[in-house]
Amino acid sequence: MIDEQESDAALWLAASSGTERAFVVIFDRYRSRIFSSAYRRTNQISDAEEIVAIVFLEAWRLRKRVRIVDGSLLPWLLAVTANVTSNLSRSQRRYGRMIARLPSPLEQEDHAPAVDEQLDGRPCRQVLDDALASLSAGDRAVIELCLVEELPLAAAAAALELPVGTVKSRLHRARKQLQSRLAIADLPDDLFAVKTTEEVA
Amino acid sequence: MTSHEPEMTEARTEAIRDLLAQTIRDEPELRRRRTRRRLFVWGGIGLLTVGGLSTAGSVLFREAAITDQSIVQCFSSTVPNPDGSFPGSGATVATKDGPGRVDDALALCTEMWRQGVLSPGFDPVAPPQEPDDTRIPDLQVCVMRDGIAAVVPSDDASICQSLGMSALAD
User: Fold this and answer.
1) Domain CATH for A81
2) Which residue, A140, B75, B128, B141, could crosslink B168 as a Cys pair with Cβ 3.0–4.6 Å?
Protein backbone atom coordinates (compact mmCIF):
# COMPACT_ATOMS: atom_id res chain seq x y z
CA MET A 1 0.00 0.00 0.00
CA ILE A 2 1.46 3.34 -1.03
CA ASP A 3 1.01 6.32 1.28
CA GLU A 4 0.57 9.54 -0.69
CA GLN A 5 2.43 11.43 2.04
CA GLU A 6 5.57 9.32 1.60
CA SER A 7 8.83 11.11 0.90
CA ASP A 8 10.05 11.44 -2.67
CA ALA A 9 12.93 9.09 -1.92
CA ALA A 10 10.65 6.34 -0.62
CA LEU A 11 8.21 6.78 -3.48
CA TRP A 12 10.99 6.77 -6.04
CA LEU A 13 12.49 3.62 -4.59
CA ALA A 14 9.12 1.90 -4.90
CA ALA A 15 8.44 3.36 -8.34
CA SER A 16 11.79 2.39 -9.80
CA SER A 17 11.24 -1.13 -8.51
CA GLY A 18 8.09 -1.31 -10.62
CA THR A 19 5.34 -0.09 -8.30
CA GLU A 20 3.01 1.71 -10.67
CA ARG A 21 1.05 3.38 -7.89
CA ALA A 22 4.19 5.03 -6.47
CA PHE A 23 5.06 6.42 -9.88
CA VAL A 24 1.54 7.79 -10.31
CA VAL A 25 1.74 9.50 -6.89
CA ILE A 26 4.99 11.19 -7.95
CA PHE A 27 3.35 12.22 -11.22
CA ASP A 28 0.40 13.80 -9.38
CA ARG A 29 2.73 15.50 -6.92
CA TYR A 30 4.75 17.35 -9.57
CA ARG A 31 2.73 17.43 -12.78
CA SER A 32 1.35 20.96 -12.16
CA ARG A 33 4.81 22.37 -11.54
CA ILE A 34 6.24 20.68 -14.61
CA PHE A 35 3.28 21.80 -16.67
CA SER A 36 3.74 25.43 -15.57
CA SER A 37 7.42 25.30 -16.44
CA ALA A 38 6.68 23.82 -19.84
CA TYR A 39 3.82 26.17 -20.52
CA ARG A 40 5.97 29.21 -19.80
CA ARG A 41 8.31 28.05 -22.54
CA THR A 42 5.79 26.88 -25.11
CA ASN A 43 2.64 28.92 -24.52
CA GLN A 44 0.76 25.92 -25.82
CA ILE A 45 -1.35 23.81 -23.50
CA SER A 46 -1.13 20.72 -25.67
CA ASP A 47 2.64 21.00 -26.08
CA ALA A 48 3.07 21.59 -22.35
CA GLU A 49 0.95 18.53 -21.57
CA GLU A 50 3.02 16.43 -23.92
CA ILE A 51 6.17 17.73 -22.28
CA VAL A 52 4.78 16.62 -18.90
CA ALA A 53 4.20 13.14 -20.31
CA ILE A 54 7.67 13.06 -21.88
CA VAL A 55 9.38 14.29 -18.71
CA PHE A 56 7.89 11.43 -16.69
CA LEU A 57 8.60 8.92 -19.45
CA GLU A 58 12.18 10.18 -19.42
CA ALA A 59 12.24 9.86 -15.63
CA TRP A 60 11.27 6.21 -16.05
CA ARG A 61 13.78 5.61 -18.84
CA LEU A 62 16.58 7.28 -16.85
CA ARG A 63 15.41 5.95 -13.48
CA LYS A 64 18.86 4.71 -12.51
CA ARG A 65 20.28 8.22 -12.99
CA VAL A 66 17.57 10.17 -11.19
CA ARG A 67 18.92 12.50 -8.53
CA ILE A 68 16.99 13.44 -5.44
CA VAL A 69 18.12 16.89 -4.35
CA ASP A 70 17.48 17.86 -0.73
CA GLY A 71 14.86 15.14 -0.53
CA SER A 72 13.02 16.32 -3.61
CA LEU A 73 12.73 15.04 -7.15
CA LEU A 74 11.56 18.43 -8.40
CA PRO A 75 14.97 19.96 -9.29
CA TRP A 76 15.89 16.93 -11.37
CA LEU A 77 12.47 16.88 -13.05
CA LEU A 78 12.79 20.58 -13.84
CA ALA A 79 16.22 20.00 -15.35
CA VAL A 80 14.72 17.27 -17.53
CA THR A 81 11.86 19.62 -18.41
CA ALA A 82 14.36 22.24 -19.57
CA ASN A 83 16.14 19.67 -21.74
CA VAL A 84 12.94 18.23 -23.16
CA THR A 85 11.56 21.67 -23.93
CA SER A 86 14.78 22.65 -25.67
CA ASN A 87 14.64 19.52 -27.80
CA LEU A 88 10.90 19.12 -28.04
CA SER A 89 10.70 17.85 -31.57
CA ARG A 90 13.36 15.21 -30.89
CA SER A 91 11.57 14.15 -27.69
CA GLN A 92 8.24 14.01 -29.50
CA ARG A 93 9.80 11.78 -32.12
CA ARG A 94 11.22 9.45 -29.45
CA TYR A 95 7.88 9.09 -27.70
CA GLY A 96 5.67 9.67 -30.75
CA ARG A 97 3.88 6.35 -30.49
CA MET A 98 3.01 6.93 -26.84
CA ILE A 99 2.04 10.57 -27.28
CA ALA A 100 -0.28 9.53 -30.10
CA ARG A 101 -2.28 7.53 -27.56
CA LEU A 102 -3.26 10.70 -25.66
CA PRO A 103 -6.66 12.23 -26.44
CA SER A 104 -6.62 14.97 -29.02
CA PRO A 105 -6.20 18.39 -27.32
CA LEU A 106 -8.39 20.23 -29.80
CA GLU A 107 -11.56 18.59 -28.56
CA GLN A 108 -11.31 19.76 -24.98
CA GLU A 109 -9.22 22.89 -24.57
CA ASP A 110 -10.36 26.42 -24.16
CA HIS A 111 -7.58 28.43 -25.70
CA ALA A 112 -8.97 31.85 -24.80
CA PRO A 113 -6.90 32.58 -21.67
CA ALA A 114 -3.74 31.30 -23.26
CA VAL A 115 -4.32 33.30 -26.40
CA ASP A 116 -5.03 36.46 -24.39
CA GLU A 117 -1.86 36.07 -22.45
CA GLN A 118 0.11 35.35 -25.59
CA LEU A 119 -1.17 38.52 -27.21
CA ASP A 120 -0.64 40.70 -24.13
CA GLY A 121 2.89 39.57 -23.43
CA ARG A 122 4.02 38.90 -26.96
CA PRO A 123 6.60 41.69 -27.51
CA CYS A 124 8.43 41.19 -24.20
CA ARG A 125 8.15 37.43 -24.42
CA GLN A 126 9.51 37.32 -27.95
CA VAL A 127 12.57 39.32 -26.88
CA LEU A 128 13.15 36.98 -23.93
CA ASP A 129 12.65 33.86 -26.03
CA ASP A 130 15.09 35.11 -28.64
CA ALA A 131 17.65 36.00 -25.98
CA LEU A 132 17.29 32.59 -24.31
CA ALA A 133 17.50 30.82 -27.64
CA SER A 134 20.84 32.50 -28.27
CA LEU A 135 22.35 30.77 -25.22
CA SER A 136 24.05 27.42 -25.35
CA ALA A 137 21.97 24.48 -24.10
CA GLY A 138 24.03 24.25 -20.90
CA ASP A 139 23.73 27.95 -20.10
CA ARG A 140 20.04 27.92 -20.93
CA ALA A 141 19.41 25.05 -18.50
CA VAL A 142 21.17 26.99 -15.73
CA ILE A 143 19.10 30.09 -16.45
CA GLU A 144 15.91 28.01 -16.49
CA LEU A 145 16.59 26.45 -13.11
CA CYS A 146 18.16 29.38 -11.28
CA LEU A 147 16.25 32.36 -12.67
CA VAL A 148 12.97 31.01 -13.97
CA GLU A 149 12.35 28.18 -11.50
CA GLU A 150 14.20 30.03 -8.74
CA LEU A 151 16.05 26.98 -7.48
CA PRO A 152 19.05 27.59 -5.19
CA LEU A 153 22.42 27.29 -6.91
CA ALA A 154 23.27 24.11 -5.01
CA ALA A 155 20.00 22.44 -6.01
CA ALA A 156 20.43 23.44 -9.64
CA ALA A 157 24.00 22.15 -9.59
CA ALA A 158 22.91 18.83 -8.12
CA ALA A 159 20.07 18.46 -10.62
CA LEU A 160 22.37 19.19 -13.54
CA GLU A 161 25.12 17.01 -12.10
CA LEU A 162 27.57 19.90 -12.22
CA PRO A 163 29.85 21.46 -9.61
CA VAL A 164 28.40 24.57 -8.00
CA GLY A 165 31.33 26.58 -9.32
CA THR A 166 30.51 25.58 -12.88
CA VAL A 167 26.87 26.56 -12.41
CA LYS A 168 27.99 29.92 -10.99
CA SER A 169 30.27 30.64 -13.90
CA ARG A 170 27.65 29.57 -16.44
CA LEU A 171 25.09 31.73 -14.72
CA HIS A 172 27.42 34.69 -14.72
CA ARG A 173 28.21 34.24 -18.40
CA ALA A 174 24.57 33.71 -19.38
CA ARG A 175 23.46 36.72 -17.36
CA LYS A 176 25.98 38.94 -19.10
CA GLN A 177 24.89 37.61 -22.44
CA LEU A 178 21.21 38.14 -21.67
CA GLN A 179 21.84 41.62 -20.30
CA SER A 180 23.58 42.66 -23.46
CA ARG A 181 20.83 41.19 -25.62
CA LEU A 182 18.05 42.70 -23.55
CA ALA A 183 19.70 46.07 -23.10
CA ILE A 184 17.31 47.59 -25.56
CA ALA A 185 14.25 46.22 -23.76
CA ASP A 186 12.64 47.94 -20.75
CA LEU A 187 12.90 45.03 -18.31
CA PRO A 188 12.89 45.06 -14.48
CA ASP A 189 16.28 45.62 -12.87
CA ASP A 190 15.97 42.57 -10.62
CA LEU A 191 15.21 40.21 -13.52
CA PHE A 192 18.56 38.50 -13.18
CA ALA A 193 18.69 38.19 -9.42
CA VAL A 194 19.53 34.67 -8.28
CA LYS A 195 18.69 33.01 -5.00
CA THR A 196 21.40 31.47 -2.92
CA THR A 197 20.73 28.47 -0.72
CA GLU A 198 20.68 30.72 2.35
CA GLU A 199 18.03 33.02 0.90
CA VAL A 200 15.77 30.13 0.06
CA ALA A 201 16.26 28.55 3.45
CA MET B 1 1.79 29.86 -11.83
CA THR B 2 -0.03 33.11 -12.53
CA SER B 3 -3.80 33.46 -12.43
CA HIS B 4 -3.79 33.41 -16.23
CA GLU B 5 -1.90 30.18 -16.53
CA PRO B 6 -4.08 27.30 -17.61
CA GLU B 7 -3.98 23.85 -16.08
CA MET B 8 -3.67 20.43 -17.61
CA THR B 9 -6.90 19.09 -19.01
CA GLU B 10 -8.47 16.32 -16.98
CA ALA B 11 -8.79 13.90 -19.88
CA ARG B 12 -5.15 14.16 -20.91
CA THR B 13 -3.96 14.05 -17.29
CA GLU B 14 -5.84 10.80 -16.82
CA ALA B 15 -4.49 9.49 -20.11
CA ILE B 16 -0.91 10.33 -19.12
CA ARG B 17 -1.44 8.58 -15.78
CA ASP B 18 -2.59 5.45 -17.60
CA LEU B 19 0.25 5.75 -20.09
CA LEU B 20 2.86 5.88 -17.32
CA ALA B 21 1.33 2.93 -15.48
CA GLN B 22 1.21 0.94 -18.72
CA THR B 23 4.83 1.84 -19.49
CA ILE B 24 5.94 0.44 -16.15
CA ARG B 25 3.83 -2.70 -16.64
CA ASP B 26 5.34 -3.27 -20.09
CA GLU B 27 8.95 -2.71 -19.00
CA PRO B 28 10.85 -5.75 -20.32
CA GLU B 29 13.27 -5.82 -17.38
CA LEU B 30 10.41 -5.91 -14.88
CA ARG B 31 8.51 -8.48 -16.93
CA ARG B 32 11.57 -10.69 -16.95
CA ARG B 33 11.90 -10.20 -13.20
CA ARG B 34 8.21 -11.05 -12.69
CA THR B 35 8.60 -14.14 -14.88
CA ARG B 36 11.69 -15.22 -12.94
CA ARG B 37 9.87 -14.67 -9.66
CA ARG B 38 6.88 -16.65 -10.92
CA LEU B 39 9.15 -19.46 -12.06
CA PHE B 40 10.95 -19.37 -8.74
CA VAL B 41 7.70 -19.51 -6.77
CA TRP B 42 6.16 -22.25 -8.90
CA GLY B 43 9.47 -24.10 -9.00
CA GLY B 44 9.61 -23.89 -5.22
CA ILE B 45 6.06 -25.13 -4.95
CA GLY B 46 6.93 -27.94 -7.37
CA LEU B 47 9.98 -28.92 -5.36
CA LEU B 48 7.98 -28.84 -2.15
CA THR B 49 5.29 -30.95 -3.77
CA VAL B 50 7.80 -33.50 -5.04
CA GLY B 51 9.54 -33.52 -1.66
CA GLY B 52 6.25 -33.90 0.14
CA LEU B 53 5.15 -36.70 -2.14
CA SER B 54 8.49 -38.44 -1.70
CA THR B 55 8.22 -38.16 2.05
CA ALA B 56 4.62 -39.30 2.01
CA GLY B 57 5.57 -42.16 -0.32
CA SER B 58 8.43 -43.24 1.86
CA VAL B 59 6.10 -43.17 4.85
CA LEU B 60 3.24 -44.85 3.07
CA PHE B 61 5.25 -47.48 1.27
CA ARG B 62 8.04 -47.99 3.81
CA GLU B 63 9.11 -51.62 4.11
CA ALA B 64 11.71 -53.30 6.29
CA ALA B 65 13.04 -56.74 7.10
CA ILE B 66 12.96 -58.40 10.51
CA THR B 67 16.43 -58.07 11.98
CA ASP B 68 15.70 -59.29 15.50
CA GLN B 69 14.08 -62.73 15.53
CA SER B 70 14.48 -63.33 19.25
CA ILE B 71 10.88 -62.31 19.95
CA VAL B 72 7.65 -61.29 18.25
CA GLN B 73 5.02 -58.88 19.51
CA CYS B 74 1.50 -60.13 18.96
CA PHE B 75 -0.85 -57.16 19.29
CA SER B 76 -4.43 -57.78 20.35
CA SER B 77 -5.64 -54.36 19.15
CA THR B 78 -4.58 -51.47 16.95
CA VAL B 79 -5.79 -48.98 19.55
CA PRO B 80 -2.86 -47.98 21.78
CA ASN B 81 -2.93 -47.89 25.58
CA PRO B 82 -2.83 -44.49 27.30
CA ASP B 83 0.96 -44.87 27.63
CA GLY B 84 1.33 -45.34 23.86
CA SER B 85 2.08 -49.04 23.97
CA PHE B 86 -0.15 -51.55 22.24
CA PRO B 87 -2.06 -54.26 24.11
CA GLY B 88 -0.93 -57.79 23.40
CA SER B 89 1.80 -60.14 24.31
CA GLY B 90 5.37 -60.89 23.43
CA ALA B 91 6.16 -64.46 22.41
CA THR B 92 9.11 -66.52 21.38
CA VAL B 93 10.03 -70.14 20.78
CA ALA B 94 12.68 -71.52 23.04
CA THR B 95 15.73 -73.06 21.45
CA LYS B 96 18.16 -75.58 22.85
CA ASP B 97 20.99 -73.10 23.28
CA GLY B 98 19.09 -70.48 25.25
CA PRO B 99 17.71 -67.42 23.48
CA GLY B 100 14.42 -67.88 21.69
CA ARG B 101 14.02 -67.63 17.95
CA VAL B 102 10.94 -66.91 15.85
CA ASP B 103 11.21 -67.93 12.25
CA ASP B 104 7.55 -67.38 11.44
CA ALA B 105 6.05 -64.50 13.40
CA LEU B 106 2.68 -64.81 11.70
CA ALA B 107 2.36 -68.49 12.55
CA LEU B 108 3.27 -67.94 16.18
CA CYS B 109 0.78 -65.08 16.68
CA THR B 110 -1.90 -67.01 14.80
CA GLU B 111 -1.40 -69.85 17.23
CA MET B 112 -1.73 -67.44 20.16
CA TRP B 113 -4.98 -66.09 18.72
CA ARG B 114 -6.16 -69.67 18.23
CA GLN B 115 -5.51 -70.41 21.89
CA GLY B 116 -7.47 -67.32 22.88
CA VAL B 117 -4.51 -65.64 24.59
CA LEU B 118 -5.13 -62.44 22.66
CA SER B 119 -8.93 -62.48 22.78
CA PRO B 120 -10.78 -59.84 24.85
CA GLY B 121 -11.59 -61.08 28.32
CA PHE B 122 -8.86 -63.74 28.31
CA ASP B 123 -8.36 -65.11 31.81
CA PRO B 124 -4.87 -66.54 32.21
CA VAL B 125 -5.88 -68.60 35.26
CA ALA B 126 -9.03 -70.08 33.71
CA PRO B 127 -8.98 -73.61 32.23
CA PRO B 128 -7.74 -73.74 28.63
CA GLN B 129 -10.35 -72.75 26.06
CA GLU B 130 -11.34 -74.90 23.16
CA PRO B 131 -9.15 -73.63 20.33
CA ASP B 132 -11.82 -74.04 17.64
CA ASP B 133 -14.18 -71.65 19.41
CA THR B 134 -11.84 -68.63 19.06
CA ARG B 135 -12.13 -66.39 16.04
CA ILE B 136 -8.81 -65.46 14.45
CA PRO B 137 -8.82 -61.99 12.86
CA ASP B 138 -6.91 -61.01 9.73
CA LEU B 139 -3.32 -60.39 10.71
CA GLN B 140 -0.63 -58.13 9.24
CA VAL B 141 3.07 -58.52 9.93
CA CYS B 142 4.86 -55.25 10.67
CA VAL B 143 8.41 -54.44 11.64
CA MET B 144 9.09 -52.13 14.56
CA ARG B 145 11.98 -49.63 14.60
CA ASP B 146 14.15 -52.01 16.56
CA GLY B 147 13.73 -54.70 13.88
CA ILE B 148 11.36 -56.86 15.90
CA ALA B 149 8.24 -58.24 14.18
CA ALA B 150 4.84 -57.08 15.37
CA VAL B 151 1.73 -58.92 14.21
CA VAL B 152 -1.29 -56.65 14.15
CA PRO B 153 -4.97 -57.64 13.93
CA SER B 154 -6.27 -55.79 10.87
CA ASP B 155 -7.44 -56.39 7.32
CA ASP B 156 -5.88 -53.08 6.24
CA ALA B 157 -2.69 -53.73 4.31
CA SER B 158 -1.33 -50.27 5.21
CA ILE B 159 -1.98 -50.59 8.95
CA CYS B 160 1.76 -50.82 9.67
CA GLN B 161 2.41 -47.32 8.28
CA SER B 162 -0.68 -46.01 10.10
CA LEU B 163 0.81 -47.22 13.36
CA GLY B 164 4.24 -45.78 12.60
CA MET B 165 5.87 -49.08 11.68
CA SER B 166 7.19 -50.60 8.46
CA ALA B 167 5.52 -53.27 6.47
CA LEU B 168 7.41 -56.52 6.17
CA ALA B 169 9.63 -56.51 3.11
CA ASP B 170 9.02 -59.35 0.66
Assistant:
1) 1.10.1740.10
2) B141
What does the pLDDT look like over B93-147, one tens digit per residue?
Answer: 887 777 778 888 999 999 888 888 888 777 767 666 565 567 889 999 999 989 9
DSSP per residue, B20-79: HHHHHHT-HHHHHHHHHHHHHHHHHHHHHHHHHHHHHHHHHT-EE---EEEEEEEES-SS
Taking 70 as the threshold, does the pLDDT of residue A187 lie above it?
no
Q: Which domain holds residue B163?
A: 63-168
Name the average pLDDT for chain B. Answer: 83
ipTM at complex level: 0.77
Q: Which of A20, A35, A149 to mutate to test the interface with B (most CBs of B within 10 A)?
A: A20
Q: What is the pLDDT of residues A74-91, one digit of tens each?
A: 999 999 999 898 888 888
Boundaries of domain holding A177: 110-201
Residues 40-69 of A with CB under 8 A from B: 40, 45, 48-49, 52-53, 56-57, 60
Is the same domain home to B67 and B51? no
